[in-house]
Amino acid sequence: MHTPPDAADRGRILLVDDEPAFQRLGANFLRGLGHEVLVAGDGEQALAAFATQPAPDLVLLDLAMPPSMDPEAGLALVPRFARVPVIVWSGHGDHELALRAAELGAWDFLTKPIDPDMLRFVIGRALRKAKLDAELRALRAVQAGDDMGLIGQAQATVQLRAMVRRVGPTRVSVLVLGPTGSGKELVARALHACSPQSASGFVAIHCGALSAELLESELFGHLKGSFTGAYRDQPGLVEVAHGGTLFLDEVGEMPPPMQVKLLRFLQEGTFVPVGGRSQKKAEVRVVAATHRDLEAMVRDGSFREDLYYRLKGVVLRTPALSERPADVPLLATRFLHRVAPRAGLSGDALAWLAAREWPGNVRELKALIEAAGALLLQDQPEVDAPLLRLAAGEADEGHHGAAESADPLEGLGPLDAALAELERRLVRDAMQSAGGNQSEAARRLGISRVGLIKKLARLGLR
Ligand SMILES: Nc1ncnc2c1ncn2[C@@H]1O[C@H](COP(=O)(O)OP(=O)(O)OP(=O)(O)O)[C@@H](O)[C@H]1O
Ligand SMILES: [Mg+2]
Hints:
It is a single chain. The chain is an alpha/beta fold and 462 residues long. It has four domains: 136 residues, Response regulator (Rossmann fold), CATH 3.40.50; 165 residues, 3-Layer(aba) Sandwich (Rossmann fold); 82 residues, Helicase, Ruva Protein, domain 3 (Orthogonal Bundle); 55 residues, Arc Repressor Mutant, subunit A (Orthogonal Bundle), CATH 1.10.10.60. The strands form five sheets. A five-stranded parallel beta sheet has the order 2-1-3-4-5, sandwiched between helices. Strands 7-10-13-6-14 form a five-stranded parallel beta sheet. A two-stranded antiparallel ribbon has the order 8-9. α13 crosses α15 and α14 packs across α16. About 3% of the residues have low confidence. Magnesium ion binds next to α7.
């Protein structure tokens, strides 16, 4: 009469009861339904069994057990079985006891003698609910682990993502600092995306691309006729961004007269359109970015100190790609999959990427991978090092890494050849005395590890 439950409804059940006969019967019954059963005779044993791995999916708990036989002691156990359904039973069909158990989070309350059909039904439903809860938790975890477009697994990138998640939802001004192509705008967009204002606009303005006059009319708008070419009233970007995020890109380039007006807007939330008389209001969250050393600019007087402090509520730094080499293969693979979903990167391609310095940072890597993806032949499953060299416009030097047997000094003039030979000896000696440790050898030579790896490849040294 009992149909065995689906695999999905089978679980690992902890049966807690002090009566040996009940333990035996209960365990047999449950095993007959396809469940795995752990048996405990008192509260202490139950907690120990609950701590085993894998943890039980469900707990059946008798309330009156030794030593005290007091149902209160049994009740106190209910919250200890965190996250799994607890089905409580008792010899007394006590209404108040059932209520207390429910208040403590018990899934159901059964009265002895236990009706097997009822037990089977209650267990099945509880296990299905527990499974849904677990799925929901996992989904939430994935959502929390959403990379917001900021790909990377290097420590610095992981920290940056954590900071974005933390700072994004606040109203605080954020200053994003980092070299060109390192993801400053991406961070600004991610901050906006995880802010409560994400439904409103994200408006970006490049502060270096416009003259002071044009920048002012872009930011604060202008009235018809206020200057030649102002044929109609135009709202400022601060109004367009109202309720959302205003991204001031390359804020270090902002001309000094505009710095004053921007500061006033940031402090008072008011502005006057070009050619206008009355003040207007707008409320925006400001994210500013620059690759310049703003502190140095403050010191030499080219950037207003008060504006600097107003902008730098929180400073986020996007590190150069060379400071997070662990991100290179991941970024490269993801960029490649966007243009060639089935293609991969060969081992020598990854080595080639790792040995490169990236002055243009992620932007440079992205452009290179996209170019390589476009050059991929129809039946070519992998991007390899020669293809990357082709994409990088270095195809004519192609024999460097590919043919290690070839003399790397071939074709060089006498001075170049002599210098290259000298370099080769110095590098080889440093590697030998460092016992093959690249970081140590690089330190001895006074160059970066990446620089060393490049040299090793170029000189044909391993
Ligand atoms: N962590 C990352 N994950 C994925 N893509 C990235 C990452 N960092 C940067 N990018 C991509 O690299 C390119 C350059 O990034 P972005 O424009 O944000 O850099 P930037 O720091 O603002 O550069 P610039 O100083 O030149 O304005 C963009 O296409 C961006 O999507
Ligand atoms: Mg940018």
